[in-house]
Amino acid sequence: MASSDSSTCDKGTCGSCATPCSESTAAPGAETEDQRLQRRMGRIHHKILVMSGKGGVGKSTVAVNLAVSLLQAGKRVGLLDVDIHGPSIPQMLHLGDARAMGDGQSLLPIEFGGLKVMSIGFLLAKQDDAVVWRGPMKMTVIRQFLQDVAWGDLDYLVIDLPPGTGDEPLSVCQLATPVDGAVIVTTPQQVATSDVRRSIRFCQKLEIPVLGVVENMSGFVCPKCGEITPIFKTGGGEQMAADLQVPFLGRVPIDAEIGLACDSGTPFVYSDAHTPSTYAFEQIAAAILTL
Fold first, then answer.
1. Could you list the residue range(s) of the whole structural domain that residue 281 is in?
2. In this predicted model, what pLDDT tens digit does every residue of 105-150 receive, in sequence order?
3. Residue 159 belongs to a domain
């Protein structure tokens, strides 16, 4: 695994990594990297991207709650955090102190109640270490996440991508073939939907199915009466989906309980509350379960 500076790895443990690197050269007659990648990916039935052309729209929140919803439906699920520069999945699952280990052949994912999780955050010496990498370094570590992590047999691998349409989403789409589709997350405002449209165009250019659009932060749920107030307006994501002729998966309103759940490391869908937000996540998961 590459370290968090711009240097490349040698054998052994890298400066900011908590786990030893595996050698990239194969012995004569041994499995090649491409063969190992194909073998790992071949054991995963469905690979789902969660992406957005805009930061700050709650994409990781959707990814975490979607993965846990699929797990609650009895599926075997993995969650891969590909946000190299701003990994937030460890915090959202209360795994900030967890560090990934190797078994000599594979990198072992962190387990969270049956969910298999991997993030660059599990490989840094300190939680707040900055990862300063150019594109080729990021593609190398993404390849290792896909080819060297012991994912095992999974029904779904949910892949949380960073904002935009740059190196990370392109690398995942090239390496994790075939990708079953993408869930696109936006907020209702036009300033967000204008950027998020680019993610849909990105998927269309790469022939990745758009499974649907999630309109996050769509109104505010009053914690006292439960009434939803459209402080950011609503409908922008739904209108964008209609304009681009892709499915609309539903609205997730701003709910104080979601924020508290993220900070405490307990996914919101573990809550027994019957709220508009709970219903929205159920709708999203139901759409994915039809694959």
1. 33-289
2. 899 999 999 999 999 999 887 777 777 777 788 889 999 999 999 9
3. yes
